[in-house]
Amino acid sequence: MNERGEPAPERTSTSGRDALPEEQQKILASTIRFQWVSIVVLVVSILAVAIVAGSSQAMKVAWLEDSMSLLPPIAFLVAARRIRKPSSREFPYGHHRSIGVAHVVAAASLLAMGAFLVIDSTMTLVKVERPPVGLIVLFGHGIWAGWLMIGVMVVTSIPPVFIGRRKMKLAESLHDKVLYADADMNKANWTSALATIIGVLGIGVGLWWADSIAAIVVSISILHDGVKNLRASIGGLTDGRARTFDGKEPHPLTEKVEEVARSTAWVADAVGRVRDEGHVFHVEMFVVPVEGAVVTGQHCEDLRTALSEVEWKIHDVVIAPVAEIPAEQAFRAD
Amino acid sequence: MTASGSRRGFLLLAGSCAVLLAGCSDALPRDSQGALRRATGGTLYVGASENAPWTEFDSPGSVSGTEADLIEGYAARIGASIHWETAAMSDLATMMTDNELDLIIGGLTADTPWSDKISPTRPYQESRGVDGSTEKMVIGVRPGENALQVSLERFLAEEKGEL
């Protein structure tokens, strides 16, 4: 009961992690654990690549790419901590948007690093920098350091593929776009490793420019990741139409909640406005009551509950009864 | 039976990988400009700047000192005769950029400021620097001549007793 003696609606006070149903909370908890595992694996790879990198530009870029791939998991963990906070007078929409902010920060750093590396790698080509790669003595045997680089690249390229696949599944169940971007980068990691290996083999056969070309290829892939992620994250923050976790199509829930609203007895017409807050959706439903219907607070409350029950993602619902659908605020499906 | 069988299989696999790797390690790396092939049985172009005890110029046209001895040992190994160029380190670095030198000696250390123009070898010896710190002594190789670099580094490691 609230102070006016009305029954407190079940879901209004919840936000943060409580906005997620039990199953999603469990997935979130296991994702957080898995992100820590992936950070440890990445740090080990970064150290291994740093130790053997030597003078190869391709190895340097591969090392920086591995380091950059730490950003999305860190952004995810920071955001996951932030969304625990409940909504308040100060933050009436809760803190789910921190997912989007984390995404923008990670994307902007990727873009900046990618741009820098494209220029840096092109300069090695322009200045005809021939990468020296010499001998290394391991357990009393002298081997060419290039073989060690290739070995490290092969070994470190395998775990991210599996980590990426696992994260992709988690991203779908959590509807988490940072996690999606993260998984996408991990999954594509092996292609950069392959380019780097070809670059090092190029040095081996005396083609010095192969190293620079491989470095440019990998830099462009970092730049591409940056552009793709920045576009997706800005779309989310500027309240674009809610889309599926991979951003590929409009989210089907928008039409589903409209259907539920229209099928309510006292509703003649309904058009919704749905935005993605990160994990959860915020719905504003404009409803036109049927001729002569008396719309009470309880009617609206019941409809609100009905919409919230469509799926866990429908988190924050506002019902706006109107005489006619405002053409400048609500837009029908094409 | 199965355990020993799979173990034998593993050893066979590891062994063939090692053989393959060893086979390849002879083939790679190659030089980007073929310095080692040219120098083997031919002429090795070496620049020296005076820096006793590593390099000393006693009489015109002859270079002595511990690094000069090392280079002579290496040249003998690959059957090369040495063409000496004596100059200041900055001039030698420029000559190396212009592909006129294969190697440079003169008490270079692993943290040499010339490393963008001269590729340092693995340290072949440690010594005391002027400030009492440990210096890692290296020889300069033309960057990208990786066959020459690996061949010289192998020679230096053998001299040091690492191989």
Characteristic terms for this protein:
heterodimer, A: 334 residues, mainly alpha, Alpha-lytic protease prodomain-like, Alpha-Beta Plaits, 2 domains, 3-stranded mixed sheet, two-stranded antiparallel sheet, 9 helices, 5 strands, 58% helix, elongated, B: 163 residues, alpha/beta, D-Maltodextrin-Binding Protein, domain 2, 5-stranded mixed sheet, 5 helices, 7 strands, 17% strand, globular, TAT_signal (chain B), signal (chain B), Solute-binding_3/MltF_N (chain B), Transporter substrate-binding domain-containing protein (chain B), CDF_Transporter (chain A)
What this model shows, in words?
The complex is a heterodimer of chains A (334) and B (163). Chain A has nine helices and five strands. With 334 residues, chain A is mainly alpha-helical. Chain A has two domains: 16-237, Alpha-lytic protease prodomain-like, CATH 1.20.1510; 253-321, Cation efflux protein, cytoplasmic domain (Alpha-Beta Plaits, 2-Layer Sandwich). In chain A, strands 3-4-5 form a three-stranded mixed beta sheet. Chain A has a two-stranded antiparallel ribbon with strand order 1-2. In chain A, helix 1 packs antiparallel against helix 5. Chain A is elongated, with a radius of gyration of 26 Å. Mean pLDDT of chain A is 89; it is low at 1-15. Helix content of chain B is 41%, strand content 17%. Chain B contains five helices and seven strands. Chain B has a five-stranded mixed beta sheet with strand order 2-1-3-7-4, with helices on both faces. Chain B is globular. Chain A: It comes from Brachybacterium tyrofermentans.
- Describe the largest sheet of chain A: 3 strands, mixed
The total count of strands of chain A amounts to 5
* SS strand fraction of chain B: 15-25%
Shape of chain A: elongated
In CATH, the topology of the largest domain in chain A is named Alpha-lytic protease prodomain-like
Q: Identify the most extensive interface between protein chains.
A: A-B, 24 and 26 residues
If strands are numbered along the chain, what order do they take across the biggest sheet of chain B? 2-1-3-7-4
